[in-house]
Amino acid sequence: MKRYFPSLIFVAVTLVSLTMAGLVYFATVEAARIKFQAVADDALNRIEGRVEFDLSLLRTTQAMFSARQGAISRDQFRTFFAALDVPRNFSGLRGIGFLRLVRRGEEAAIVRELKEGYGIDRQPFPPSDQIWRTPIILFEPMDKAGLDAMGYDMFTDEGRRAAIEAAMAADGEPRATGRVLFGAATASPNRQPGMLVFSRLDGPAGVDAPPAGFVYVAFRTAELFQAALGRGALLPISAEVFDGQPDAEALLFRTETPPDPSLGDDFVVRRETKVAGRTWTILFRPSSAFEPPSPRAAPLMLGLFGLMLAGAIALVARYQQRAYEAALKLHEATEKSLLEKDLMLQEMKHRIKNSIARVLAMARQTAAGSRDVEEFSSSFSARLQAMAASQDMLTRSRWQRADLGELLRIELGQVFGKDLPSEMVSGPPVELDETTTQALGLTFHELATNALKYGESDITGGCLRVDWRLRGTGRTKRLVLNWSERNGKGLAAPQKTGFGTKLIDMNITRELGGRIERSYAEDGLRVEIDIPYAV
Hints:
By secondary structure, this protein is of the alpha+beta class. The chain has two domains: about 1-290 and about 300-305, CHASE domain (Beta-Lactamase, 2-Layer Sandwich); about 370-530, Heat Shock Protein 90. About 50% of the residues lie in helices and about 20% in strands. Strand 9 (about 235-245) and strand 10 form a beta hairpin.
């Protein structure tokens, strides 16, 4: 066997080296993955910063309307919009507008505002059965499409209505729609995804009353994200932005740069961000510009050549550790064996002392109730045999538990013979501890002896029935045992309580903390024993 040691050592060290090389490689890949996560977090910060910057335009517009209590003319609104220098400062902004909130049936005020501001005679459209109407009465920059949209009731569109209702209840906080396709009304093939963000404008009555209207901004999401990811150093990422969960119908933006297929899905980074009450899901993947993990050769060479000596030393140390562990286990086994022997001796002394005390007590009580030596010898021997049977059952179970049914058959078999009827004893499996086994063993012996003395001569033929059951749960569980003797001659309660009866009562009530009830009737004797049952 010793001649194979060099080969075994070589194989072991080689395996360890290859394992370490693999760990180094995977650590390199993990480092690259962590690096890309940092890049993705940088991209997320850029997107969140850009969105927050663009939403500041909504807050500025809201403040301007609040300062003038919503009384803004078309010329004032156009001057405000021109001062924003939107092409240079707010890339992706499609426009800013104002919706007037009125109840259905009050559209005349809207017609008046459109006539005064834009010189058009138009009812809010399309027709609506909603309680509220929110037609556009101001919008910049104005062009023919914008002019055609004046008076359009955004509350008639389900997606816009949900955002408007959220803004109405948001106490001034902006609320965004999901993905909106701008140009949908014209059925243009070049429709661009975007979103609308609404913010309520409170009237003179304050927040407790319905708002006077809603300031809103419309963004083209492609230009917004391009402005966010294109500033500063270009990031080596491919990004997809979804409104909610990733789905083709919820896609807000996808970068033109495709992901690097060689890196697979292991480098996909998923992030979520809140934008005006909406949750966006962003999937980042590395592009071909991302630096891939280091070549595999370097970690492999490091594992092969750098860990040879460490592997050999580890192998020697392992042999020493095994010798130490073996000695330690031997010491622990020796200590445990000595402790178990000591405990066994102490337990044996305790049990012998208790058994002697019990035997002496039975001897005194039996002698007090016996007329002569022969009667004493017969009664005392029978009780010792019952006690010995219980001890034998406990010995076979190593003093752990004893089966109630087996204990009954042993005690009844000593009195009535070994061939007992199968229906004489019935009940579910019940295991007894040491104290309960000894107490019930003597009890069953006394009851069986009395049945033989005072019952019918053919008691083994079916005149005796013993059954038991468990009731309750947990700590309240109890064992209930019924002993029934049939005696056609009738049976009356004894005038004098003998030692056997006292022994039974002492075992059940004092030893086991239970109760026993006897019922003497014309057809025989019934005994019910009720004791606590410890699982």
